Fold these 4 entries.
Entry 1:
Amino acid sequence: MEVIQSIQKQLQQEVDAFRQIQLDVQQNHRLRQQSLQQQHENEMVLQELKLLSEGASVYKMIGPALVKQDTLEAQSNVNKRLEFIAGELKRLDSQLQQLEEKQRKKQEQLAKLQTELQRVQQQAGLAVQQQAGLAAA
């Protein structure tokens, strides 16, 4: 019985670890979705900035105030933001691959533990039946 309890405890720990990995995957998807949205917004801003004429005024909101900004500087800032977002997306994709690999390995571990638990439970059941048979004889 101690072996069964030990395996059950180990199985519960692995299930908890698997659930945590699933939560991490969900968080990664949320962050990736946010980054994609920011990327799309910044691409639209860049397109709008490219449509402006040479002497057009561009304002940047800093706190509650609007501050005039050079058009080329604004384009440069948006391009830098897009580069940063692209790097963040690449990092998130790499992290997601690692998490999915961890998840796959945990699934394999869980399947092995479940099989082991069933095997031990069957052996324990057979031992009880044999003891009952010997006691009856």
Entry 2:
Amino acid sequence: MFPAEWSKQTKQFFGLQLVCNLYDLGLDRKEILTFSEGFAYYFSHLPKMQWVTLLFGVACLIYLGSASLLILADCPVSLYHEDSRLSTLLWLRPAYCLYEEWTRKAIDPSQATCWTATIEVEVKPAGSNSTYKIGRRFPVPHCSPMMEDPFVLEEGLAYEMGPTLICFNESCTKAVLPGHGYSVRYVLYNQAQSLLAATNWSQPFQTLDPPLSFRSIDVDFKGASGGLVIIIVLLSITVFVLLGAAWSAMGSRNHHL
């Protein structure tokens, strides 16, 4: 990827710096590899001084892009409420006041208005370095203390995470699995699709385990001893005999009447 005359240490330093900056921008492993391959192709077709200039320019752009991402630590991600977990779906509380928090901390709040900005939900499965997203973006919700109460939320305002997630390049999908953890963060975009701010990654939200099927319920007497089985059978016979005797007594009484 880098010029052959560079030392091994120099190549490792620039390569590691490039990968770290791309990762900070939210690219996953596959996207970083694709970017690096294209980067290497253009390097191999440029004269010496031009690739030095290009390397410096790309490094500056990547650094500025990663540095300009504002992290909104005061906007935590949470579930809609404690019962909003299914085996393949999670309901998330909308990103209330995220846009307002960005306008208070942004250098140039005029980059986006609350009517044109959108919020994307990014998802990272536990134990994986890959990042996915929900298949739609959401408008900026109203920032009001009343909307913080999950029991007064209007139906349809919560963010539905699942049952399918989408890759960043929208070329693949991934199912939300039962009994798995998923970390979530909200990302703010303006009308020009420029990334403005993001929340911190949440702690993993656990989906419910798959429900038990009827076939998995043990209805035989494998766990019962022989004596217990005999007692159960005798009690059952006794109940049937008593019911039969009572039925006969009632029948004879009605006959005499």
Entry 3:
Amino acid sequence: MSRSNSRADLRDESFVDRPWGCYSGSGYRAANGRQEGVTLVELIIAMVIISIAAVALLQGLGLQSQRNVDPMIQSQAQRLASQYLHEVSSKPFFDPGADPRLNPALTLAAVVTSISDQSSIGSANRLTWDNLYEYQGYDDSIKDLVGSAIATLAGYRVAITVSIAPGLALHNMANSTDPTCPAKIALITVTVTDARNQTTTLSGYRTSYWAAGC
């Protein structure tokens, strides 16, 4: 066999058992001679699928982060409501200037006026408020006792009501339905609104420890 024929045979044998295609210097070619790989349409579809999956993942992470923050906000609102409720409850039931327990000579009308006194609410300094009804209708941002805003709690707001309504009852005790008879029960309600516009409400009762006799 000549040297030229040997080379031809080697070239022929190089394609044995390659029914699906052949390898060239630029890559694998199919039997029809076209370059195989990912088409543009397939690439776009893959990118769309990956984008959808990424959006779903990020949304899930964002929701989880929000759920982690929510209990902290709720806990802060509960603490604020508790602090304000304690503050109001610690105030005297009667105005100190007209306390029937200290001055039995006071008329019932004077005692009624004493209970509903709000003569100090003109002052932002709550340390000067000397009876619990001063807080009736209070609605403000979170401030300290002397009336200074607390910047770190700027997203919260508090509203307070103090009810001494006739007929208000607590167990076997109740205010008289006669408005001229001094109340002996007060219902304090504190509502804190947070930055999400969600509300937290705490309530408590306060009694006068004085029998009006009517």
Entry 4:
Amino acid sequence: MKQKLIQQFYQDYQEKLIKFAFALMRSQENAEEAVHNVFRRLWASDKLSEIEKPYPYLIQCTKFEAYAILAQEKKQKEVNLQFLKSEAEEKRLVETNENRLIQLRTAIDSLPPKCKKIMRLKVDDGLTHREISDYLKLSKKTVENQVTIAIKKIKKYLSDH
């Protein structure tokens, strides 16, 4: 009985409901999905026998389903837009960091040879003042002074560029 009634509703109203949903949604695929969902829910419902006027009932169900699909699409578009914005921001930050790194390397390259060598060991190799002094056979104080001089020159270079 239930199956036969739903089949009859489907034959009688499916095309009209799709046209109605299309008018709301402007998408044939979404309109068909909305109507399909209405009939799927109708099949799962126990209230089929309580429906006195099937067409107005199905129109109302289709309208609610169409709005639900549209709301879901809008939410998905907002999520996608937020994702694209965060991707663009991340790309911008990476480019900014790359530019800063290039500026830092250029600033280090502009240093006098002794300062430059010490700063390369510090920045590129991550050595401590003690390790640099041992490696270059300089006093720790000399390395500290050269790093201080280098930092001042780098700051000036970066503020000028």
